[in-house]
Amino acid sequence: MNSKSNFWNVIPATTIGTLIQWYDFYIFGSLAVVLSTKFFPSDNPVTSFLSTLGTFAAGFVIRPLGALIFGELGDIVGRKIAFMATLFIMGVSTFLIGCVPTYETIGYTAPVLVVLLRLIQGLALGGEYGGGVIFVAEHAPKNKRGLWTSWIQTTASIGLLMSLLIIFATKTYLGNDTFLEWGWRVPFWASIIFLIIAFVARKRMGESPIFAKAKAENRVSHNPVKDTLVNKANRKLVFLALFGATMGQGVVWYTGQFYALNFMKTVMQIESNQVDTIVSIAIIMAIPLFFFFGWLSDKIGRKYIILAGLLLAVVSYRFIYEDMYQTANLENKKAVTVAHNSALKQPEVYPKTTQYTDGTVVKETLDKNSKTPKVTLTKTVSNEAQWHLIWMVFLQIVFVTMVYAPIASYLVELFAVSVRYTTLSFAYHTGNGIFGGLVPVVSTYLVTSAKDAANPAFYLEGLWYPIIVASICFIVGLIFLKNNIPNSIEN
């Protein structure tokens, strides 16, 4: 089978399955603001939101365990059966999250069930990603591994984009009130449809030829988990991949997309639909760069592209987020009109709307559901400011594409075929899942603590976590990573 026909037999089915897995996993994070009011006590909105982010993070922390469980299956039985199983588990658990009754209905049983389902999702994703990139890389020509695996690398960002678009479409069709009442469940229920499509596409796939050959020659591991964690040579490579590449890649990915999303909604207080639009456009603009940096890594090697992305993120994050925050800072704007939803025309009457000279519109409403009624503020920024924010998020996603596009082929080339599924998945999901997955909750907590302490630059404090982790990864990678591209991954 030639390279072209091989491409069309492997890439579409693998990519669509991995895309659906990321969609299923990220729909929870995309709806974090809404879910915080559904599954947790609403007395303290900040605490509820942090609890939701903590539940979101729980799915990440469990991913290394899923990597070991399904990695062993993939290294002993086969690549295909492992990621077929993860696809089914992820789809069903996502659907069930959409069926869980709210906190008002069943009390603390609601968050317990949601946390349990998030853990199941995390286990499934821990086995999915490794299988996808390995399957593609083991089919790819040796001089196109970076380019071919970059298709898989796009699926995480496209999965996030897909979740935002489906949320937007559901909200538009049902209306905001209906969406907040029960319509938020629809994106979770849609997972079953996507599951069927991906399952049919993957069922027709054959086994990886490299794995099939290794198995026929009895060159596979009989205990991949032990060989990953106990074997000194394999363990050394896992730590190298973790501290020299994947943990930095993880924090850059989640800062540039998820933290940017939450930052604009909760810290900058921009209207939710407008934030989703900003992030969606930025992702669409940046997607071609995954293919570019994947292709470039085939030409010059993986190391320096990954390290350049890490360094650019470290030195620029505070400047980018300072710029983003000031774009919507009302202290920099001049109000021109105030409209009240009352004939009394009094400033203390809510809801009220304020128009600013630059086109920003601010709506203030009184939240009477909390113990202490408080005013909530939502901004809709001008078209010019919106495009400025799009470019700021786009810049962050450029860093994402630099660290993320080459890393799949780098990891495949690093590990031996006998334990590749287990070692690759464990290194990736420990770095991406734990270090990266903790970005939203840790960074939001740091911002909240700094704001409570009356720190005038509180909005920048959440960046210390990704900056420190990415800096450590850059130093380790610069010293210990190799830039050579192996001619064969069959051993």
From TrEMBL:
Q: Which GO terms describe its cellular component?
A: plasma membrane
Major facilitator superfamily (MFS) profile domain sequence ranges: 10-489
Q: Which residues cross the membrane?
A: 7-28, 48-70, 82-103, 115-136, 148-170, 182-201, 237-255, 275-297, 304-321, 389-412, 424-443, 463-481
Quick check: keyword Transport in the entry? yes
What is the protein named?
Sugar transport protein
Species this chain originates from: Flavobacterium croceum DSM 17960
Show the Pfam families listed in the entry. Answer: Sugar_tr
* Keyword terms, alphabetized: Cell membrane, Membrane, Sugar transport, Transmembrane, Transmembrane helix, Transport
Q: Report how it sits in the membrane.
A: Multi-pass membrane protein
Annotated Gene Ontology MF terms?
transmembrane transporter activity
Q: Cross-referenced InterPro entries, in alphabetical order?
A: MFS_dom (IPR020846), MFS_sugar_transport-like (IPR005828), MFS_trans_sf (IPR036259), Sugar_transporter_CS (IPR005829)
User: Which PANTHER family does this one have?
Assistant: MAJOR FACILITATOR SUPERFAMILY TRANSPORTER, SHIKIMATE TRANSPORTER
List localization entries: Cell membrane
Q: What is its main location?
A: membrane
Top-level taxon in the UniProt lineage: Bacteria
Q: Which SUPFAM superfamilies match?
A: MFS general substrate transporter
